[in-house]
Structure formats: structure tokens, C-alpha cells
């Protein structure tokens, strides 16, 4: 299990490094483009026919009255400035053309240093479940959810990252519970490596959060400057009636977007609850199996204890009987020895009397 956790942490490290490098390059480009306000040239364009918001229909745009281009003051550019800023240009949603110099961003290859595996570690082919199987499990789970609720297909595609995070969180919880109750001996080298990987992951998360906060600050500042610029252009182009129409349209769009967002969040919540319930059931089943094993082990230990106590009692009883038997035999032997010694004493006494009588007779005869 430690080999699985090590592989899981290393793959997470690769993904986090790749994602952070990609974010840095994108945010660097965005920051250079938005902060180069000195090199930006704004050119007037046809507002009503040349641009539209995401929520604006083409029929509504055609119904609006066309603006008189002669009445609006036009920013003319000479040929020199047009050639100078022709290297890069972007189009805003308000019909203005923003030209700027294309930033030169160097591309560096990042080499990821993997921690060395100890010699005592098993090869990764012996892992219980490779990481590809987790993606299969997630796809199977989402497929079942889509079968039951076809409307949730769009939400699953949009919110796939959040669903993956929840799924891998539950998988990790399942694996940790399985690891803690397997009872295998933990390799100290792998344990140290796991702790180091966790510490590195924490540091990376802190760095990512810091980068995100800095990016948000930069984007806020750039959005502020951008809003100030396009508001100045809107003052000359947009009239009072159009402003009223835009406010009404904006309120309608906000209500529609809120309803769509609410529905999407509800669908996402249902999908996440399905995934959570699936792995909660698996974890509960694993806990029940572990409790059954513990109960079986406790009963087996109790039975062994009872058997050993009975055997000990039987052995002590047998020893007691043998001791009593030996004691009786010794008593009998002592009594026999006493009787034999008594008989010998009597025989010796008789011989002495006999010899004494014979000696008296011989003396009388003499």
C-alpha cells in the first residue's frame, strides 16, 4: 500500500507542476497584455453591427437604430502607428480594436526531480490497484449516474474537476482505512518518503494559493483599468435610451443566469451526493468486514484460552494423581523396609539366644 501512495503522490506532483507552469505562462501573457496601457491604441468601430454580447440575440441587434458615424468623433491613426502595432491585436466585446505589442515569453523546459526509491521497496507492478483503474471507476460511476439522470450529462462535463477531486478524496479515504487495518509491517523508508511527499504537497498548495491570490489581484487591477477605458468610449457612443435598454437586458440576463446556475448547482450536488454515497457504502462495508474479523479473532482467542485452561487443569489433576500414587508407593516401600528390618532384628535376636544357649551347654559339659 505504501508503494501505491508513493506513486499517487508522485503523479500528483507531476500534474501540479504542469498545471502551475501552464497557469504561470497564461497569467504572464495576460498581465503583460493588460498592463501595457502605454502602448494601447483604441480605434472606433461600428458598435451596433460589429459586436454583441454572449446573451444578446442577432434579432435584437438588428432592431436597434444605427448610429451616425459622422456625429461620433473618430480616432484616426497614421500609417506609421498602424504598422508599429500590427504585431498583435485583440477585439473587445464593445466593438473597439485594441492593438498592442506581442509579448516575448521564453519557454523553459522544467525537469521534475523524482525522489529515489529505496532498494527494499517492491516494484510498482505489485500494487493492489493501479491509478488507471480509479479513472475507470469514476467513468463507470458517472456513466451509471447519466443513465439514471440524462439531464446531468452537461453538469458532469462542466464540473468534472470538482467531481474528480471528491472522487479521489473518497478513494484516498478508502485506501487509508484499508492500509491501517491490513496489519502489514510498515517500511520506515517508505514512511519517511510518504511524510516528505505530504509536506511537499502542502508547500505546493500554499504556493498555488499565493499565486492564485496574486493573479486575482492583477486581474482586478487590469479589469479596473479596462473598465475605465471602455467607459470613456461608451460616453460618446451610447445614448440614454440604449443605456435603459441595456440595464433592462442586463437584469433579465442576470435572472436567467441565476436560474441556470441554480439548476446547475443542484444537478452538481446530486451527482456529488451519488459519488459520496457510493464510496460511503464501500467504506461502511469495509468497516463491517473489519469488525467481523475482529470479532472472529476475539472468539478464536477466547476459545484458545478456554482450551488451554482446561488442558492446564487436566495436566495439574494428572500431576496430582501421579504425585499421590508416588507418595503411596513410597509409604508402602517404607513400611516394607520397616517390616524387613524388624524381621531381620528378630532373626538376629533368635540366633544370639541360640548361640548363647549353645555356649552355656558346652560350658556345662566341660
From TrEMBL:
Organism lineage reads as: Eukaryota, Sar, Alveolata, Ciliophora, Postciliodesmatophora
The answer to keyword Coiled coil applying to this record is yes
Q: Could you identify this protein by its name?
A: Uncharacterized protein
**Keywords, comma-separated and alphabetical:** Coiled coil
Coiled-coil features, chain-numbered ranges: 190-224, 320-347
Amino acid at each position: 500500500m505504501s508503494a501505491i501512495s508513493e506513486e499517487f503522490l508522485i503523479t500528483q506532483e507531476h500534474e501540479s507542476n504542469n498545471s502551475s507552469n501552464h497557469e504561470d505562462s497564461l497569467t504572464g501573457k495576460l498581465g503583460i497584455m493588460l498592463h501595457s496601457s502605454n502602448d494601447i491604441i483604441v480605434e472606433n468601430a461600428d458598435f451596433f453591427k460589429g459586436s454583441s454580447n454572449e446573451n444578446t440575440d442577432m434579432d435584437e441587434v438588428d432592431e436597434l437604430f444605427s448610429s451616425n458615424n459622422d456625429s461620433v468623433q473618430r480616432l484616426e491613426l497614421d500609417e506609421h502607428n498602424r504598422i508599429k502595432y500590427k504585431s498583435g491585436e485583440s477585439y473587445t466585446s464593445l466593438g473597439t480594436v485594441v492593438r498592442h505589442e506581442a509579448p516575448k515569453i521564453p519557454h523553459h523546459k522544467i525537469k521534475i526531480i523524482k525522489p529515489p526509491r529505496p532498494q527494499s521497496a517492491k516494484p510498482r507492478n505489485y500494487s493492489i490497484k493501479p491509478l488507471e483503474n480509479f479513472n475507470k471507476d469514476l467513468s463507470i460511476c458517472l456513466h451509471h449516474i447519466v443513465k439514471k439522470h440524462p439531464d446531468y450529462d452537461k453538469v458532469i462535463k462542466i464540473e468534472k474537476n470538482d467531481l474528480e477531486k471528491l472522487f479521489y478524496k473518497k478513494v484516498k479515504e478508502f485506501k487509508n482505512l484499508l492500509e491501517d487495518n491490513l496489519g502489514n509491517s510498515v517500511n520506515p523508508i517508505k514512511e519517511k518518503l510518504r511524510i516528505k511527499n505530504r509536506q511537499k504537497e502542502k508547500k505546493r498548495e500554499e504556493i498555488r494559493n499565493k499565486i492564485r491570490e496574486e493573479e486575482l489581484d492583477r486581474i482586478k487591477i487590469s479589469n479596473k483599468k479596462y473598465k475605465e477605458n471602455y467607459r470613456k468610449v461608451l460616453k460618446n457612443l451610447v445614448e440614454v435610451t440604449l443605456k435603459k435598454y441595456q440595464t433592462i437586458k442586463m437584469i433579465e440576463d442576470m435572472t436567467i443566469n441565476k436560474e441556470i446556475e441554480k439548476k446547475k448547482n443542484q444537478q452538481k450536488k446530486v451527482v456529488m451526493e451519488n459519488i459520496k454515497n457510493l464510496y460511503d457504502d464501500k467504506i461502511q462495508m469495509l468497516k463491517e468486514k473489519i469488525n467481523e474479523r475482529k470479532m472472529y479473532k476475539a472468539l478464536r482467542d477466547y476459545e484458545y484460552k478456554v482450551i488451554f485452561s482446561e488442558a492446564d487443569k487436566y495436566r495439574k489433576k494428572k500431576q496430582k494423581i501421579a504425585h499421590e500414587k508416588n507418595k503411596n508407593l513410597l509409604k508402602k516401600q517404607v513400611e516394607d523396609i520397616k517390616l524387613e528390618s524388624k524381621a531381620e532384628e528378630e532373626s538376629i535376636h533368635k540366633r544370639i539366644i541360640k548361640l548363647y544357649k549353645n555356649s552355656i551347654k558346652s560350658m556345662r559339659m566341660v
